[in-house]
Structure formats: C-alpha cells, structure tokens
Amino acid sequence: MSVVVLQLGQGGNQYGLALFNALASSRGSPLPCEFFEESGSRGELPRARALLIDMEPKVVAAVTRKANGGGAWKYDSRSCFTLDSGSGNNWAAGYCSNGVTCREPVLEQIRLKVEKCDCFGGFLGIQSLAGGTGAGFGAYVLEALKDEYPSACIFSHSIWPFQSGEVVVQNYNVLLTLAKLHEVVDGIITVENDSLVAACKKTLGIPSPSFVEMNSAGAHALASLLLPSFWRPIQASQASTCNSSQLRVRLLSDLAYALCAHPAYRMLTVYSTPQVRVESLDFTTFAWPSQLKQLKRIAYPVELEQVPGDTRLAKSVQKSVASLLALRGPGAGTADVSVMREPSLYPSWCIDPLNVCANDKEMIKDGGLAAGMMSNCQGAILPASKALTRAYAMFYSKAYLHQYFKHGLDASFFEAAFATVEDVCHSYSIL
Amino acid sequence: MKETKASLAFLCSLLESLGVAGVTPDLLRQAKSNAPCAAIKLWRPLHDVVCLHLCCFPCQEDHRELEGFQEIWRSSGVFSDDHGDGIVGFVKFYVALWGYLPSSRFFGLPIDTRESRELLLALGWLLSHCDVFLRGIEARSREISSAIASSSIAAPFPPLPRDVATLAGSRAREVELGVEELVSKVLHSAAQRDREAREGFLADHLLMLHGRIGVILKSIHSLQASRFRRIHELNQLQLEAIRQKIQHRLYTQFELHLLQDPEAARDLQRVLEAERQLRSELASFQKHEENFWNWMADENDDEIATPARSLKQEPSSCCGVSQEELIPVIQFLKDPKDQCGVSPVPSEILAVLAPAFTTMNHASCSSKKRGDDRAAFGRLRDAGFKYQPSSTLTTIDQSIQRLEEAIDKLTIGHKELRDQHRIAIERELKSFLEDESFVVVGL
User: Does the keyword Signal apply (chain B) (predicted)?
Assistant: First the structure.
C-alpha cells in the first residue's frame, strides 16, 4: 500500500528529507515500495513518493539538491510546488489566502502522484504546527484531500515548536491547526522539538543538536514503524518467526484501525530504541528484554511534567488508549512483549490495546535490535494544554488577532478551535 | 455387440466399485438365457444392492454402514438353510416395499431356484429403482470434484488476478472475524461491570467499532478504486500494443494473469483437465447405461414378442375384457348422471368400445405357468394390462368416431349437454389409453 508524503512548509520539507533518508537507510532491505517508486528508465534512482510544497522556493530547492546529491534515491523534480512569497507565519494567510489560490495546482500534482501508486494507501502530511505554510496551508491541503479522496487514510506528522517560542503567534497556529486536523485526518502523529533536543542531548550525546540532527532522530523513530513489518501475536508462545505467510502491516489503514479508531483519541506519539550514539553501536549488546524495558521507560514515564493551572494531567500516570509496537531484528517475531502489556499502562475500559508487528531483518546494524512504539497516549496532548493556556491569554488580550482577521477569520473561529482542542485535552485527561 | 459387452463389463465394475460383489458379464448373459446355474449367484448382488440403497450408497471411504449388512452375508452364507431364507426374505421384503410388481413370480422363488431370468429382471428393476448409474456417476465425480476444489483457482474463474481480486474480499473477511472477536470480548467485559460503568464502557467501544468499520470501508473502497484503475491501465497498454501490432487481440485480465503467473496457468490446466475428465465420464456413463437397458429390452423382445403374437393368433382361446375390467369408462358410462346429469348411455354405445381392447386367454395370464415369458414381461411394465400399439390407436380413433355417430343418433336434444358428454368420454378414454400398459392381461 503506497503512501504519498506531502512535505508542507519549511519544517515539513526538512523533516521529510530526514524521513526518506531514514527509510532508505534500513540495512539489507530494498527501498520500501510504499514510499519509493521505481523510475521508468534503467539505471535511474528510485524516486520518493513525495510532493514538496512551500510558499518559498529556497527550502524546497535545498532539500531537493541534498536528496539528489548522490544518495540511493531522489526526489522527482516535477514533484515540487512553490510560490515566490511565504505565508509570514500567519496561519490565516496559509489557510484562507494561499490555500484557495493554490488548491487546484496542488491537487493536480497530488493526483499525478496518487496515480503512480500501484495500490494507494493514503497520505502522510509532514508539517510544522508553528508557521503559516506548514500549519495553515498544510491544514487546508489536508482538508481538501479529505474532500477529494474520501476513502483515503490521511495522517499528519506534526512538529511541535519549542516551548520557549519560535514564533510569537505559534500558540494560535498550533491550536488552529490541531483543531482543523482533528476534524479531517485519521491520526495526528506529533513530535516535540523539545523532546528531540532532549533525546539528542541525553542519549545521543549531541550537546547542541542542529535541526538536521533533531530531524534525523525523529525520522528514525518514525521509520522504525513505517518500514515493512508483519503482524504477530502478542503472546510469545503463539508467535513465530516472521515469514511471508503472515499479514503485512498495511499503511496507513492498519495504523488507523489499530490506533485511532476512537474519534476522541487521534493524537499519537512515537518512541524508539536504541537511543545510543552511533559510535557506540558497535559496543552495544542488544537483547529484547533490555530494549523493551528502555522503550517502556521512555514511552510511559511514571510522572508527567507539572502543568501550571491544570492539575489533572499532573496527577495522572501516563496512559495509552492503544499502542503499536514494532520490533526489528533477529528474534523479533518471538520476543516476549509482556512488559508492554501491564494493565496500569492502559485505561480499564480498553480491550486488547497493544498491537505488535515485527520484522526479523535488522534496521540499524548486523545483529542489532530496534523497537519503535506509536502510542495513542496522554503524552501526545501534553504540549497542547500548555499552548491552550498561553493562547487563551493572548486571545483575551486580542494580541495579533488583526493579522488573522484580515484574511477572513473571526473570533468565533478561534473560539471553536480552542474548544475543540480543549475537548481533546479533556478526553485524554480522564483516561 | 462389442459395445454391449463393454457396457456389461462397465456395469459390473461399477457395481463392484459401489460395493456389489459377484456380478460378471457372463453371469448376466447366463441369466438372460435363464441358465439355472446363474440363479443362485444373483441373490448376492440383489442383497448388496438392497443394502447399498438402505445405506444411501456410502462413499468408498465410508463403507462402515454397509459392513453390518455384509457381515450377515459373510457369517451365514446364502446356502445356509437358516440364514439363506432370511436373506432372501430380506431382499424380497424391500423389493416389494419399494414397489416391484406384487404379482411377480420373483416373490415365489426359493433360494435354490433355477429361474435366473426372474432374478435378472428383479435385479434390473432394482438397479433402475436405486439409480445405480447415477450413484456411480456421483462416486466417480466425487474424486474429480475434490481435485477441482483443491485447486487455488476459484471456480468460476475470476476475471481478475487473484492478488487484486481477492484483496478487498480477504480484508473484509479478516475484519469480520476481528470485529466478531472484539464484540464478544466487549460484551463479556461489559457484563462484569456495574450498570453505570457499563454504559460508558459500551459507548466507548461502540465509537471505536464505528471508527474501525469506517477505516475498513475506506480501505476496501480504496482497493476497489485501485483495481478499476489498474484494469483501465492494462486495457490502455493492450490497445497501444495492438496498435503497434505487438499484440493481436485484447486479452482479458484473467488471461493476462495466466500469462504473467505460470503457476496459475498450470493450476487452470489441472482444473480444465479435471472438468474434461468429468464430462467424458458422464458421457461414458450415459452410453453404457443406454446400452445396458437396450440389452435388457432386447432380451424382452426376443423372448416375449413371439408369445404375444401367438396369442393374437388364437382368438378362439381368448376371452373378451369384461365390463368390470374397464374400470372408469364403464362406471362413467353406466352412471352419467353423476358426471353431467344426462340419462344412462344405451348398451349400443358400450358395444362400440369392445374392439378397442385386445383380448387374452385367461390361462395365459397365470403367473405360475412355467415358461410364460410373456407374463414376466408384462409384470416388468405394470400389474394389470398390456397395451397393443399395433392396432389399438386406429381402433380407438374409429371407436371415438363411431361413438360420436352413436351419440348423434341419440335423442338428447340439448347440443351443449351432448358436447359435454362427448368430451367427458373422450377425456376418460384418452387418459385410460395414455397408460402404456393397457389391456392384455386381466387382473
């Protein structure tokens, strides 16, 4: 099931490049056909099933140049859509103005991409939540896709801005985007820049990680779940080595089925192991129990960070509505995953919340083991609570609202978006 | 002649494959010529066919039901005085129960009879009654059908490659099973909760179920759309190939699938071979069955036609058919008031009916008269009457004509009543004559 990736805005394009590199760097496996298409002529590199969209040509050109600089794959030079002027970090400019203007040419390019898929599996939009193009225009494009392809699964991979603030209106943009995405997509995979920095610093030993390194870390975690794998039973006694007779995980419908079936819970977070320095990989001993133990520690922290003014989440232990565990490496098909089945990790009403897929092929090095987890958990919405608090404060002081109003938004649009995100936060808080 | 020989051999092998032992072409031929030595050997096949019919013809692998009956045969033997009579009685009982001619001499034959023809006739009737040829076809086709069923090619053959055609279907089946399992778990878990918690629990799971079904429906819809698009692309490519004279005609998706997948092509070949074999077997069965019944009929004609003709040559020794024997017609004519409210028909009308029926000597009707082949043949057909097709149709036409003339002469003034009367008589006569077994042998 082929997936068309939409790289939206600056952050989306940079993260998309990292994701395709991660997908292509899997050891001993051909490029996954879900994300790469064979070129028509012999000797030409496979092309990413991606459409690069930005309102400025600079980032797209840079990303294309990097990808086409002699790697194992490349972007199709015709799969880019750019304009001459950006959205100015204004969600309304991206959603209301550029969206309407660019709808037809963008959808036409997407149609061409979809038609190249043997068996179309859905869209994965990669976007930042802070800016104008990725957030505003991205939300518009995904909404348009919902109308144009009603039977397609649509996932959004959304990058949370730094809490310290990248853009002054990022909280508005985040909440408006989240509210819109919650209406139109099947699942919202979130990754926090703060978490990526922390991971790079603590576990990868990078003192001041760049965006490239952060993107690479996040993309590897996502790739561990998106690379080909097969469903396996949860019970180790019923499991067997992975083979072709087992059902392959079909992107993206299987993810939606397993993780995002409940309409109130569509926020996903990705975790992965091992988190060690590249130079330390050769000296690392891999074993499934230790990998899973580390993954559990990362995915299910015992205490959440305290949120000022909102004590509900702080008192709760992070719980998950559903989780997808992907194991890669020798013995993945038979590894004991009971550590991830503890009832305390899930709400009492959940039935069979854990799903496991596996692939015996190594992802990182010979004999190396890797585990990834995509979880529909409370951790995914934690930054939203913070953003909501700040956005309400700005909204009541009417800060920067005129910039949005001049593109056609009004106060009720904001209020509705805030209410939607508040509902989502509330749903997660009572797990 | 060769065909008959082959058909007899075929019947014998068929009976053996069904579990009937001891029937050989020689035995059948001897029985046809009423050889005394063949009689004793025919009891066993008769018994076996009865047993098989009682067991509804079990398949080759499951003859356990039959073993009980055959054990009787093995343990006792037909020649045993004690059990032999029991077995013969058993055969006669079921043969009579299933409707064999009650007046047949077969029922009077002892175990050591020399009348092999009577037994052959009974066996023939039994084979016909039990549809042995049909059972044989079923047994032979069972094996071939299982070969077809084990093939990975579905029948009727799909018009599309398997991987595309079955994808949406298999996805739907997977989900159906998954949903069933989920629902049962939800209901089980809900039953263990108190009422307040149960409502929220069920609501959450209903929403999840709705979401999952929505995802699956979208997935299936997407798969179907992909399928249609690929079909379109295939056709476009083929049309282009035809235009460039690389290809001569437009292949169906299934043909293309076979060209692309040699294993599927071999599978299809196996299925077609099995189908062809099945059809060939069916034709063979039909031919052998026809030959067998022709052979049986030949026997009847040879042995029975002459006495029948001889009877016609001896009018003096024949007696006419009595009015009592003309069951419905006579009753009708005698009491027409019940039918159409007219007065009784004069005896002159009854008189014109008489030539329509062949008469027969009562002495020749005796079923106990040894060597009376004609009577045996009559019993094969029906209990009471033998229709003489040579002259009767003409005679009946003449009779009806004369009957009409007679009616016309009557003083029944009302034309409508007269027509009703005439139609009723014609109908009754025709229904009576439609039965092939008409008059010859009185009851």
Answer: yes
